[in-house]
Amino acid sequence: MIRRIGILTSGGDAPGMNAAIRAVTRVALANGFEVMGIKDGYRGLVEGNYIPMDKSTVSDILNRGGTVLGSARLTEFKDLEIQKKAVQTLQNAKIDAIVVIGGDGSYRGAMALTKLGINCIGLPGTIDNDIPGTDFTIGFDTALNTVVEAVDKLRDTSSSHHRCSVVEVMGNRCGDLAVWAAISCGAEIVITPETGYDELDVLERLRYLDKAVKKRHAIVVISEKIADVDELARKISQNTGFAGRATVLGHVQRGGSPSPRDRVLASMMGEKAVDLLMEGVGGHCVGMIDNKVTSMPIEEALSSPRHSRKDLYRLFDRLV
Ligand SMILES: Nc1ncnc2c1ncn2[C@@H]1O[C@H](COP(=O)(O)OP(=O)(O)OP(=O)(O)O)[C@@H](O)[C@H]1O
Ligand SMILES: O=P(O)(O)OC[C@H]1O[C@](O)(CO)[C@@H](O)[C@@H]1O
Ligand SMILES: [Mg+2]
Fold first, then answer.
1. Could you tell me if the CB of 102 is within 6 A of ligand 1?
2. Beta partners for residue 148, in sequence order
3. pLDDT score for 305
4. Which domain holds residue 191?
5. Does 207 carry a binding-site annotation?
6. Model ipTM?
């Protein structure tokens, strides 16, 4: 019988994590559970850094970016001995179950704890949209809005100066932020882990857009960890009619007030997490698939292939 539920946020923070914390807390309290907030992800969990949560603790956080519980990366949490220590600390604090809000790495920690007897439910909180088992992660929509706003602004100035803006977006080896932004902004080129990267092709295409199509500007949206964007911008200036400029959007993409869509997604997922724990389920993650809140074992989610994005890339190609 579960009496006290813990909540933690782990990995890179994402807008909407607070909405999830609020939903888990309020639904759990309404069902008669006690709730403890665990600070700074698995680090706070191991150190016993816990705070009691009541209804007012989660007031005024729905609209706030980041995570009020703090987040961290603790590599040592992969170690079985550390996990056992964490379980002991949780038992001392009488925490019987945990909702883990984070990415795939955080899910693995949740799976490990469940195997050691603490039922955990994972909620997908990351701007990268790189977690299998859900169509959308909490934070993706807000980050996409941030990227689109920035690219729209870059387009204005690029157009005035006959420039090509190379915009690097996050994604941690997942191209979703880049391709969704590229479609939303009418970018000329998108480069992601899915498209691959050939510098000569990019330069040739830009020369064509300049000379044949007579574009006043060009936008290249590129996922992080693929190329040195300053170097690419230099090559564009040297080898095409555009002056190249690179912008790395960086951590600005992780902040900001969550979009209504992320708030609702997080709230629905938070509710589902508590429902699952009440049913005695552990080691599952919550997802939104075809507009329905679902759940599946974390193991299954992490081993299933990601949905194909072919349709999105085909659409992009047909629109340029
Ligand atoms: N295999 C694992 N076993 C146990 N714990 C893990 C494992 N992998 C990661 N973790 C824990 O989860 C934390 C977060 O993982 P990671 O840094 O991969 O981020 P994430 O949850 O994938 O989020 P994001 O990628 O969006 O930033 C790690 O610092 C570690 O504490
Ligand atoms: O905040 P950090 O540790 O620099 O991590 C950055 C990484 O985290 C994310 O923002 C979220 O996973 C990735 O997009 C990015 O690669
Ligand atoms: Mg990850």
1. yes
2. none
3. 87
4. 140-255
5. no
6. 0.97
- Structure token digits, residue 210: 């300049």
Q: What does the angle CA 87 – CA 295 – CA 51 come to, to the nearest 5 degrees?
A: 35
Do 154 and 107 share a structural domain? Answer: no
C-beta of 9 in contact with ligand 1 (< 6 A): no
Name the residue with the closest Cα to ligand 1, atom 27: 12
Ramachandran angles phi, psi of 285, nearest 5°:
-125, 155
Same domain, 25 and 116: yes
- Identify whether residues 243 and 271 lie together within a single domain: no
The CA–CA distances, whole Å, from 196 to 3, 85, 101, 137, 175 equal 50, 43, 31, 24, 10
pLDDT at res. 215 = 97
Q: What are phi and psi of 271, to 5 degrees?
A: -60, -45
176 tagged catalytic: no
Q: How many domains does the chain have?
A: 2
Say whether both 177 and 34 belong to one domain.
Answer: no
What's 126's domain CATH number? 3.40.50.450
Q: Do 78 and 125 have their domain in common?
A: yes
Residue 215 sits in a domain whose CATH number is: 3.40.50.460
Measured from the alpha carbon of residue 45, the closest ligand is 1
Q: How far apart are CA 172 and CA 168, in angstroms?
A: 12
At 306 the pLDDT is 84
Look up tokens 């040297």; give the residue. 238
Looking at all shown ligands, the one closest to residue 103's CA atom is: 1
Residue with tokens 């709730």, as numbered in its chain: 35
Sites in the chain below the pLDDT cut of 70: none
Which ligand 2 atom lies nearest to the CA of residue 103?
12
Q: Is 270 annotated as a binding residue?
A: no
Angle among Cα 223, 169, 121 to the nearest 5 degrees reads 90
pTM greater than 0.95 (yes/no) = yes
Q: Are 207 and 239 in contact (CB under 8 A)?
A: yes
